[in-house]
């Protein structure tokens, strides 16, 4: 018994010593952010020597009568802990950071972060409504894999993709439909999984019966790189925004499809294929579907960077009228356009719709509040998925 | 032409606007850390208003005559950028953070981070020797998947694992050997991939012909949780160290093996199975191999938390002499013990070896410098993998 107690004691010592190599260990009891039942959120930072601490976030108050400013000052208590509680916030995924004496820092008590190009951002979820779709629920979960595929037409020859296979895929003999889901400028194959919460949205909508079980393939739309930063032998460079809208990625997309159809049990026809993307990825979806006009039965343009006239880098818009005609001859089940009224690409999308209207091509149009934001792109994905493969 | 230029201009605007939702965007040109060809490293932080900036890291100088202190002060230049350059460092993966006016912060210019329980740590790699194994090289890459498996004997019923399948697995018809690789206290199914760099080490050793192509299954050794923090419907709680050495995870391990053998093309016998773990995971490997004495042909105990006498929580050590005898009757191809001379578990491992020696059981013993550190555990993995399945 005494020995057991000694062992217990020894085992307890293991915890603080579990990683001597760790140069900084948060052993504190500070909880930040703390999301309360009413949707208000408390931020805390232990910084007794600081002179000022602010929180900066993309907050939206649940009740306009109780607005929540995007920047707020924290108050220092006697224990050296700065704290601030917001008004109740609308159900959403929020990003924030602290500013301590003028220096922007991450919240050291929050391990949950997303990356946007070269910036890490703390995040939290206020549930209770739409953002419940972004949280992990007690439902069957799909498998998420990081996969390398051959891409002989690009410089790196092999490239990285993220693949979501729905719960049940591995134990089934069925063929599954595939959504190719493309990121925007500055993003990469991780963007829809991280900031887009695509795996959670899929798990939840499929479990609710709102979306068909489907494979989702998230590629890297920048052929200058084989993968997201730090995930290839290009090394751990500082990420930077890469614009790739000259057809070089788009024209390699046949390699993606043939790899996916070779490796996974897929429905190998337009009725089982969708392509959608945000911003630059909306342009990619536009371009790829024009050039492979019978490949996709469902096309989604989220805040798409489309300029639907001739020209463009590498002539990517050349003959787009003829190509649109060919595409719509094959009568895609869904041609979907979504954009926010404040999006800087709004007018380009007005022009695209005008062309579609003039030619009499059917499409679905969603106009939302807000601008060129992940908040909108998550909304569009939640709206788009139930329309596929039905 | 004019329109093309306008489009180019519009496209360039997309970059800064690509994520209006981002509340903090690092648009700076600060590169930190910068690893130089000689292994010295420059740190930089833009903080013109700060009064003092220090870097704290687990540095090891390449040349003892030019030592590198673990804490060093940065110097402010006229542009408001603090900077410091280390002595040349030995090839290694290093962690560090900054301290600004007494507050520990992450390096805002470095997006590469690892998590240890509730702490995020910046890291970088100094290559040129052993740490080249931790970097991603231009070799074929395996697939890394996050997979949910049924675990009816545990409270969560389904649990999460990470699975590495080697390059070529999907295009082959062969059965593959499997290494079950277990984390320590405070870790989870992500630990060996993140801090352990297991996927990179496997890609590199397999490409060099030093290790056999193998499947590697990384489980979560804390049955109190279904997954790593934030990866299950338990939500985005603040991570805390979980000790689980009472047999409750270990006794569910048959569920892991039967899932893996059902889903993957595996060699379903001891010659094609290995189990290894660090610290608490070393205890798990010890315990599981004792209780499934004909299942694993290769057993690895890295800095293992073994107290090889009777008793223990839940009687996990009961009858261990008899169980060891049964295990060694089946003549495992490898029984591997590795520990650092400064490890606080060193004496327990001396005692384990004494027992093995007295009984005349063969084993391989590696004694290294240092203590209970990921640095050692990565070294042990690199040493262990080539000994498997040969």
Set down the secondary structure blueprint.
The structure is a homodimer of 390-residue chains.
Chain A (H helix, E strand, L loop, with lengths): L1 H16 L16 E2 L5 E6 L6 E5 L13 E3 L1 E2 L4 E5 L6 E9 L2 E3 L7 E4 L2 E8 L16 E9 L5 E9 L12 E5 L8 H4 L3 H10 L7 E4 L34 H11 L9 E6 L1 H12 L6 E5 L17 H10 L4 E7 L5 H14 L4 E5 L5 H11 L6
Parallel strand pairs in A: 13-14, 13-15, 15-16, 16-17, 17-18
Antiparallel strand pairs in A: 1-2, 2-6, 3-4, 3-7, 5-6, 7-8, 7-10, 9-10, 11-12, 12-14
Short description:
The structure is a homodimer of 390-residue chains. Helices cover 23% and strands 25% of the residues of chain A.
Measured as a percent range, the helix fraction of chain A is 10-25%
- How many DSSP-defined strands of chain A? 18
CATH topology description of the largest domain in chain A: Rossmann fold
Enumerate the strands of the largest sheet of chain A in spatial order, edge to edge or round the barrel: 11-12-14-13-15-16-17-18
Average pLDDT metric of chain A: 91
